[in-house]
Automatic annotation (TrEMBL):
It comes from Blautia intestinihominis. This is N-acetyltransferase family protein. InterPro entries: Acyl_CoA_acyltransferase, GNAT_dom. Pfam families: Acetyltransf_4. Residues 7-175 form the N-acetyltransferase domain. Coiled coil: none annotated.
């Protein structure tokens, strides 16, 4: 890819599922970045995209029609009182790391969530006291750089590759919290 080609961010389509699953698969098979053990089927992954887009953004980074990464938001928790908070996820093609794609995706995700009326972005991140072949804590560093703060750590709560991993929650507040807070706008309404 030549350097003069621009990376663009767009809304994911269900037809992107094979390309997105190809990016996600090495994270499942080779890392503790996700605690998922089994690679989802293409049908399951397509369903996840569809379900997410009902309420939240699901974005892809693309260059010269090649998908390089993706980001999406999901409910922080299902109860109505949590409607202004989301959990965020970002995955970048492992051959395209350190090219600024994660930042582009995060910035676009944050702008979209802010426009929807979301106030808190939360990230649930696998964490290890000492880096190993499956986890290096780069995600914590990335989120710190994006303005998140550490709000909690759970110890030895995730088990993968015969290793116990910790999990941290990080949070970034992106809007003002008011006594009479308007309800957030669902992405499918916002994105019409």
């Amino acid at each position: 890819m030549s350097s003069d080609e621009k990376i663009t961010i767009r809304t994911a389509r269900e037809s992107d599922a094979p390309a997105l699953l190809a990016i996600y698969t090495p994270y499942v098979e080779n890392t503790a970045i996700t605690f998922e053990y089994d690679v989802p089927s293409i049908e399951e992954f397509t369903s996840r995209i569809h379900h997410t887009l009902e309420k939240y953004p699901y974005l892809v980074a693309e260059k010269n029609s090649q998908i390089l990464g993706y980001a999406y938001a999901s409910p922080f928790h299902e109860r109505a009182a949590y409607d202004w908070a989301v959990e965020t996820s970002i995955y970048v093609d492992q051959n395209c790391k350190h090219m600024g794609i994660g930042r582009l995706l995060h910035d676009a995700l944050e702008q979209t969530l802010k426009a929807q009326g979301i106030l808190n972005m939360n990230a649930c991140i696998a964490y290890t006291p000492s880096a190993d072949a499956h986890l290096d804590n780069n995600s914590v560093e990335f989120h710190s750089h994006m303005g998140y703060r550490l709000v909690g750590e759970f110890y030895q709560c995730g088990y993968k590759f015969d290793t116990w991993y910790n999990m941290v929650w990080m949070e970034k507040q992106i809007g003002e919290h008011h006594k009479k807070q308007p309800a957030p706008i669902a992405f499918k309404e916002f994105h019409k």
